[in-house]
Amino acid sequence: MDFLRDSRLPKAFQSEDEMLTELYSQMLKVVRHKLWHKSDAVDVVQEAWVRILEKSATLRDKEKLVPWAKAIAYNLASNANRARRHDANYDMLENELVSPTFVFEPEAMTELSDLLGRLDPTTRTLLLYKFYYGLKDAEIAAALDLPVGTVKARIHRGKARLRTQADDESGHT
């Protein structure tokens, strides 16, 4: 890391290798503290090292390398959490839609039809547009002349109502 050679090493470190090892350790602590999935920590720190190398010219004060590197690692950990949450939501939704219990079993289809029949017509329409016809939220919003945020919120609440009804029904049987 050539840009480190230009700066003075803090007195606590005897060599550049010691400083890099300590920096790696500190970045790993920051990332592990921030991440939901601890198994991603090493990958995030590696990505942070790449960013540090790419952006080394933007570090104005070499004395601030450690906080700068830790901030980069923290931000990348936040990004990883956000990506994981998005992937988890997408996977959950995809599993709900493609799940064999809903697609292939007639009993489950009958139960789902009954649950949908108990919903108000607007909510039922939104859920059918989204999950049966596969329309995107923006397409539904345009078709119903509603804001996209309203469509998303109503779909979310409709799914929650379906789950509640399904849980109530399974609790009574």
Automatic annotation (TrEMBL):
Pfam families: Sigma70_r2, Sigma70_r4_2. The keyword Transcription applies. This is RNA polymerase sigma-70 factor (ECF subfamily). GO terms for biological process: DNA-templated transcription initiation. GO terms for molecular function: DNA binding; sigma factor activity. It comes from the Bacteria. PANTHER family: RNA POLYMERASE ECF-TYPE SIGMA FACTO, RNA POLYMERASE SIGMA FACTOR HI_1459-RELATED. Keywords: DNA-binding, Sigma factor, Transcription, Transcription regulation. Belongs to the sigma-70 factor family. ECF subfamily. Residues 22-85 form the RNA polymerase sigma-70 region domain. Residues 111-162 form the RNA polymerase sigma factor 70 region 4 type domain.
